[in-house]
Amino acid sequence: MPRAGPPRYRPAMSFAPIRPPADAPPVRINLYSDTQTRPTPAMKAAMMEAELGDEQHGDDPTVWALTDRMAALLGKEAAIFLPSGTMCNVIAILTNCRKGDEVLAHETSHILHSEGGTHAALTGVQILPLKGPGGQFTADDVRAAIRPKTRYAPPQQMLEVEQTANIGGGTVWPLAQLNAVAAVAKEQGWATHMDGARLMNACVAVGVSPAEMVAGWDSVWLDFTKGLGAPLGAVLAGSKDFIGQAWRWKQRLGGSMRQGGICAAACLYSLDHHVERLADDHANARALARGLRQLPGVVVQEPETNLVFFDINATGVDFDRFVGQLRAQGIMISGLGGRVRACTHLDVTAPMIDEALTAIRGALAAA
Ligand SMILES: *Cc1c(COP(=O)(O)O)cnc(C)c1O
User: Fold this and answer.
1) Residue whose CB lies within 8 A of the most ligand 1 atoms, among 103, 220, 223, 270, for a mutation test
2) pLDDT tens digits for 221-257?
3) CATH classification of 29-39+277-366, choosing from 1.10.287.110, 3.40.50.970, 3.90.1150.10, 3.40.50.300?
């Protein structure tokens, strides 16, 4: 009798994205994510005119211009251009930690939920989830999580925060609270790392400069593909030594580019033209929240930036049906952390908010 071979590990699904059917109605109002912004004609023109070179050889002047500008903007010694925000988080952890180390982060953090298990699969750190409302925790919460320095406990090495806190509701950490949690980390000798995917939204919302906002953090990165509207790219900043080490991981992970300046030019363009206008996105988010609050059974978290989270459970409307009905009308919206998430950005105008509200009212009334 042939014996069965050893069980083979085979995931039950394909991980490839699903293409929209050819007859899907075009998306007219995209509240799904600020990652879906398209480069504007002026941004594309800036990309076409960029001076280029071999980025991984250190010869692309536009990438240098971007990293110099970002280091200055964030008040750090140096910066590195990377393809994505996820790679910024992965490289910050690889640079700061060794396998078996522990990173402290909020229980809703991107590194815990949305990076495909990278930190178990690749960086080998474990993440200690901290609790607290709005994706934030306090200095006391961090103090309560300090482990004894014994051979039994995992070595704690890094504290991570998200500014703004995405699943927390796009909330803005108050500067004093950011500094207070970073101070506890410093007392312990830990590295401090900020996931600043939407840092500019936070800075514009509360009127604090980026350098002041991140002063307590050893490393910080900004995503150019969220509300800033670039097609690709994120910049991680920190000390000269940290960025020097980060370069080795960039090379190892295949994140080194060639004529990367074509994308860096879009990032530079967005710094000149798409930062102050984030205030419009925040105003649109507040208008959407005001309208949603009029609808019976809808529970809305007051937006602080460009993310509007709301709960439709009390309306009795099935979530997938709700999303499907809106999609049929060309309106795209997402779910995150058990709630509906609507996101305002460069390609969402005030009249679109009114139209989306009418469609949402209809989709809820149809139930
Ligand atoms: C989008 C996002 C990331 C990842 O950035 P990518 O550029 O999509 O890889 C990380 N953290 C937060 C909070 C985000 O919103």
Assistant:
1) 223
2) 999 999 999 999 999 999 999 999 999 999 999 999 9
3) 3.90.1150.10
